[in-house]
Amino acid sequence: MSRIFQTLGAGHDDIPLLWIAAPLTGLLVQPIVGYLSDRTWHPKLGRRRPYFLIGAILSSIALFFVPHSSVLWMAAGFLWILDASINISMEPFRALVADKLPESQRSYGFVVQTLIIGIGTWVASNLPWMISQLGVSDSAPQGVVPMSVKVAFGIGALVFLISVLYTIFTTSEYPPEDMEAFEKEKQKKNQFIPDIVNNIGNMPLTMKKLGVIQFFSWFAFFTMWSLANPALTEHVFNAPAPIEANFNMEILEQKEAFDVANTTFQKASNRVGSAMGIYGLSSMAFALLLTFYTAKRNINRKYVHMASLILGGLGFIGMYLIDNPEHLKYCFVLVGIAWGSILSMPYAMLSSSVDPKKMGMFMGIFNMFIVIPQIIAALGGINFISGLLGDEAINAMLVAGGSLIIAGLCNFLITNKSAISYQS
Asked: What start-end ranges are recorded for coiled-coil regions in this protein (predicted)?
């Protein structure tokens, strides 16, 4: 998305605000979907799967049209639609893992989910590069997204729809234990707002402490998602996005110079995307190791998460220090270890600390600790803090590194033994 925004003329200081769609839609959509899915039972689709289906259809449509945006506001608008739709699918997926598994297997379950996410991240990040290697052009006129990116988004839309449909048709859900009581609860007057407010006020202490860790973790990753492309194309590949105002398009030589600079930027963006794909690959490898281990043994979730986040923070800081683009992959290996832990350990710890009957709602409320730091980052938090270090876009990666290390150290706050390690 950052690459598309830059192609359509956005400066790197504008990009975090353009990304605000993601956390805002999550803040609004996920608690609502979590609440509704707790109170849903469809005879054929069950509790969570109706939301998978709706979210997948809308997301796939938005994914297809995003790279065909002709102006910046259109791309930002499609991102709002895309993120709202993805959130409809995402929250019930997490709740489904907790629904399906006994407490003793939840670390294992969330780790397996992380493993599969890692595979998708690696493939998706490399798609534009893979497609360009097949001969699809990275070049495009000023203000037009290259065909390689358009094809990648189209493939993403198709894969997303097929994978969610596969889940819907091959996964069963357990009905409520007491269907009569469940139906009576559904027929009560809608108490959505009071229930949300009451559960926020009475959330378990462990959930609040995990929220602090989540705050710094997701501030860091939002910084990466929004600013890694401008930061790394400029600092590591020396190929920043050309600014149209610096070229006189009526002069042939200047137009040709712009086209060369733009193609160089697009190719550098492909390489940044491929490097970022490494974090999906390493999160997958990390999750695979945890999968084998947690299948038979308990782990100390607290210390695993702490060490993982600190390693990820060092990976972000390393992006500032390297002088060889080939070394970028090692930084993303470390970032991937943190990402693999973020997608599994907090949810495993949370699911051991909340009422199973309200799992969907609490997962939705927990999402507030994910989206609020992203909103703060988008509304100027990243620009302000990184601006204290200088004007270069790469300073944002230093901010991400520091934030992730703070998140790691905040794991010392977790003291609930059942959250730290399941005891049978």
From this structure: none
Q: How far apart are CA 197 and CA 100, in angstroms?
A: 27
Residue spans of the domains in the chain: they are 2-420
| Bridge partners for 60 per DSSP | none
Fold of 2-420: Growth Hormone; Chain: A; (1.20.1250)
pLDDT at 178 over 70: no
Residue at 159: amino acid letter = V
Dihedral sign for Cα 294, 298, 302, 304, please: negative
- Residue 113 binned pLDDT confidence (cut-offs 50, 70, 90): confident
Rounded Cα distance between 257 and 252, Å, is: 9
H/E/C letters for each residue in 209-238? HHHHHHHHHHHHHHHHHHHHHHHHHHHCCC
pLDDT band, very low/low/confident/very high, at 221 (cuts 50, 70, 90): very high
The two three-digit tokens of residue 317, written as one number: 């800081």
pLDDT in tens, 181-200: 666 666 665 566 676 677 67
Please name which of 378, 370, 374, 367 lies closest in space to residue 29, comparing C-alpha atoms.
367
Q: Is the predicted pLDDT of residue 424 greater than 60, yes or no?
A: no
**Which CA distances in Å does 244 have to 142, 145, 148, 260?**
8, 15, 22, 13
Burial of 202 (C-beta count, 10 Å sphere; 0-12/13-18/19+): exposed
Q: Can you give the pLDDT at residue 389? A: 92
Q: Which one, of 2, 349, 284, lies nearest residue 149 by Cα?
A: 2
Among residues 325, 332, 316, which one has the least CA distance to residue 268? 325
Residue with more model confidence, 301 or 107: 301
Contact present, 67 and 23 (Cβ < 8 Å): no
Burial of 376 (0-12, 13-18, 19+ CB in 10 A): middle
Assess contact for 84 and 371: CB atoms under 8 A.
no
Give the C-alpha separation, 95 to 358, whole Å.
10
Q: What is the pTM of this model?
A: 0.72
Question: How far is Cα 62 from Cα 351, in angstroms, rounded to an integer?
Answer: 32
pLDDT over 90, % of the chain: 20
How far apart are alpha carbons 62 and 348 in whole angstroms? 31
Residues 112, 101: contact at Cβ < 8 Å? no
